[in-house]
Design brief:
The structure holds 2 protein chains of 2 kinds. By secondary structure, chain A is α/β, with parallel strands linked by helices. Helices cover about 40% and strands about 10% of the residues of chain A. In chain A, the strands form 2 sheets. Chain A has a 6-stranded mixed β-sheet. A 3-stranded antiparallel β-sheet of chain A has the order 1-3-2. The model of chain B has no long low-confidence stretch (mean pLDDT about 90). The chains are: A alpha/beta, B alpha/beta.
């Protein structure tokens, strides 16, 4: 059978199409090119073997490890009975099987839950967090505020270069190309300069009950930052950790927040900062903290677990990133002293501590973050009794 | 010659000393048959790079390896013009007074002045067919990925001054990533994807028998059982297969016939590479796993 022929005749091809449709309904981004690749792949394997058939579909239809669990689950549902040696595919399961009641496997797979923006989720949590709709004027205002934001991070010089006549590095390739237009006479030497760009930003934001008053403003802030800059990863945590990076990339804040509220299992619950940071360290740190990432940790430092494991998790986090900035919105007055256990455990492991005394608007947040670091740096906080 | 079936592909890998499960063999076979690049993701030390080496050996092709790093650019990855010799050629042309501008440009941007770097070398029609290994793509920065799109989709490279170089035989392309950064969707779409997981106990024993043949069967079974249990612990970095092989070699160097708590404590640094993990496992925790592993290995 030539690879171009529809796999196993019309019936199998039709079933694969239905399967792709099911995957799409489950939220996996399966495109027409992926489908064509799958149809080309299936005749190349022995479809009597369930594993080979599954791998032919999996290698072509999905492109991320995060989607694998959902794919395997959908595969089991759709191609219900394994048929040894038969080339008739088993009949499709009822359409929408994945959007029915949540599968027990999905709920228990914490990996899938950790990145739930793409997965079929239990819909009853939807809207449990109510955000006032944002008008076009509000969005424009938020964009203006974010333009003023200067994160206290600076830029990192990369090893890439861009053409710059006054740059320090000669560009021989461009010089020669220009000179050939003049018969090989070199009159100008083209030059380049090293590019610098902001480092990746990882935001870890506390959404527990004690932070509830600020959640709305923080989410607007996170959304504005995520759509404004490249390389921003956003995680929310209370007792669990949720990666909401993809949800926040939606341009429309209302849609983005709806996706976020689906992805987060525990709005305004307790806080287990140590456990959440430990989970981040194990599961995400290596994946998002490369290339000089800066971590912005937004939390009040009030920990339900009495700071269990918090110091160790903070130390590990601090060692894994280029810079760790702690933004604490709890501090409404200037005479703040770090008394709680959680705060005491965390303070030794941050590069910069930024209390926000009045977090009533995006503007206040932007101003607070854009201020130059306090003189004396961390000494001031660490010296306190 | 490319293998004709999944079984042949598995044989080819097996002959090269690579113990692949059916899932991986199927994906590799598809990548070869469909002439698509293969994107392998997985934890460090699970044999992603090794697969490309074995493929090159088994297919009797040369291995072209591009190790990615931050700031990797076209001149290091694909091609570079030999500027010094170009300048020299201009001087010679001036001295002999021979050349006019057009002819000079044609001469300067000819093959003689083009330096091959891995990507160009892999698709150069003048060289024998290749296996192209793009190793640890996550270490390169995002702009570099854009350079790869043309070569991954069409196995060709366009050099503005020269023209387009097409591969006579499409290279077998293997891309590996440790996920220290997410590889862009544009790259993923052009590849077949496979997640390389830690092996199960049986496959790990087979791998150990291949890679550390001097290790006795009982010790090997206990080692594998211990490492499998260790991966279930709450660790910052669980040990990969490479660590298992190192550890087996270390224990047999120490003339151990079975694992015991003292030997494990002394050699834990071969398996675990973070002080937090070692401190967590040393002593009682390791002793408990040793007991379980000895029981499991019989």
């Amino acid at each position: 059978m030539s690879p171009a022929a529809p796999a196993g005749g019309g019936r199998l091809a039709g079933a694969i199409l239905d399967f792709a449709r099911l995957l799409r309904r489950a939220g996996l981004p399966v495109g027409p090119a992926d489908l064509l690749a799958a149809l080309a792949a299936v005749p190349l394997v022995d479809i009597g073997s369930r594993t080979q058939f599954r791998m032919a579909l999996r290698a072509t239809l999905i492109h991320r490890h995060d989607h694998q669990a959902l794919f395997d689950q959908a595969f089991c549902l759709f191609w219900r009975t394994p048929q040894a040696g038969g080339n008739q595919p088993p009949g499709p399961a009822p359409a929408g099987a994945l959007s029915g009641p949540p599968q027990p496997g999905a709920a228990q797979d914490s990996r899938a839950a950790a990145n739930a923006a793409m997965t079929a989720s239990d819909r009853e949590r939807l809207h449990s967090m109510d955000f006032a709709a944002m008008g076009a004027a509000d969005i424009a205002a938020a964009k203006r505020e974010i333009k003023r934001l200067v994160l206290p991070l600076g830029c990192r010089r990369t090893r890439r270069r861009r053409p710059d006549p006054s740059g320090p590095h000669p560009d021989l390739r461009a010089t020669l190309r220009v000179s050939l237009r003049r018969g090989g006479e070199i009159l100008d030497i083209a030059a380049t300069r090293r590019l610098s760009r902001p480092p990746p930003l990882v935001v870890l934001c506390d959404i527990s009950g004690s932070m509830a008053g600020y959640t709305r403003i923080l989410l607007h802030f996170l959304h504005a930052v995520a759509t404004d800059r490249a390389r921003v990863h956003t995680f929310l945590f209370g007792t669990l950790l949720a990666n909401v990076t993809r949800a926040l990339r939606h341009r429309d804040p209302d849609l983005a927040f709806q996706l976020v509220s689906q992805a987060v299992p525990d709005w305004s619950g307790g806080t287990r900062i140590g456990a959440a940071l430990g989970m981040f360290n194990r599961r995400w740190a290596r994946r998002v903290l490369a290339q000089g990432a800066v971590v912005l940790l937004v939390t009040d430092g009030l920990d339900r677990d009495g700071a269990a494991g918090l110091a160790e998790a903070m130390e590990r986090l601090h060692k894994s990133c280029a810079r760790l900035v702690w933004l604490n919105p709890l501090l409404r007055w200037n005479g703040f002293a770090p008394k709680s256990q959680g705060i005491r455990a965390m303070l030794p492991h941050v590069d910069e501590f930024r209390p926000v005394h009045n977090l009533s608007s995006l503007r206040a947040l932007v101003e607070s973050l854009s201020r130059p670091p306090a003189p004396g740096g961390m000494q001031r906080w660490r010296m306190l009794p | 010659m490319l293998p004709a079936s999944v079984a042949d592909t598995a044989c080819l890998l097996e002959a090269g000393g690579y113990v692949a499960d059916l899932e991986l063999a199927t994906t590799v076979h598809l990548a070869l048959a469909m002439r698509r690049p293969l994107l392998l993701e997985g934890e460090p030390g699970t044999g992603k790079t090794e697969l490309a080496k074995v493929l090159a050996g088994g297919l009797n092709r040369r291995l072209v390896r591009l190790q990615c790093h931050d700031g990797l650019d076209l001149s290091a990855a694909a091609y570079e013009w030999d500027h010094a010799r170009q300048l020299m050629a201009i001087r010679i042309a001036e001295a002999t007074g021979a050349a006019d501008g057009k002819a000079l440009a044609g001469d300067l941007y000819s093959r003689a002045f083009l330096l091959r770097r891995p990507l160009l070398s892999a698709i150069d029609p003048d060289l024998p067919p290749a296996v192209l290994l793009i190793d640890e793509l996550d270490r390169a920065d995002e702009p570099f990925e854009a350079f790869l799109l043309e070569i991954l989709a069409d196995f060709q490279l366009t050099i503005p001054e020269y023209g387009t170089v097409h591969a006579a035989t499409p290279p077998v392309v293997v891309i590996t990533s440790n996920r220290t950064r997410e590889v862009h969707d544009a790259i993923r779409r052009r590849c077949l994807y496979h997640w390389v997981d830690y092996p199960d106990a049986q496959r790990e024993r087979q791998i150990l028998a291949r890679k550390a043949p001097g290790v006795a069967a009982l010790l090997s079974a206990q080692i594998v059982a211990f490492v499998q249990l260790l991966r279930g612990e709450d660790l910052f970095k669980p040990p990969g297969i490479a660590e298992t092989i190192d550890w087996a070699t270390a224990l047999s160097q120490l003339d151990r016939r079975e694992i015991d708590a003292a030997a494990v404590d002394a050699t834990l640094g071969v398996l675990l590479k973070y002080q937090d993990d070692i401190a967590r496992m040393k002593g009682a925790a390791a002793a408990r796993l040793v007991g379980d592993a000895r029981a499991a290995a019989g």
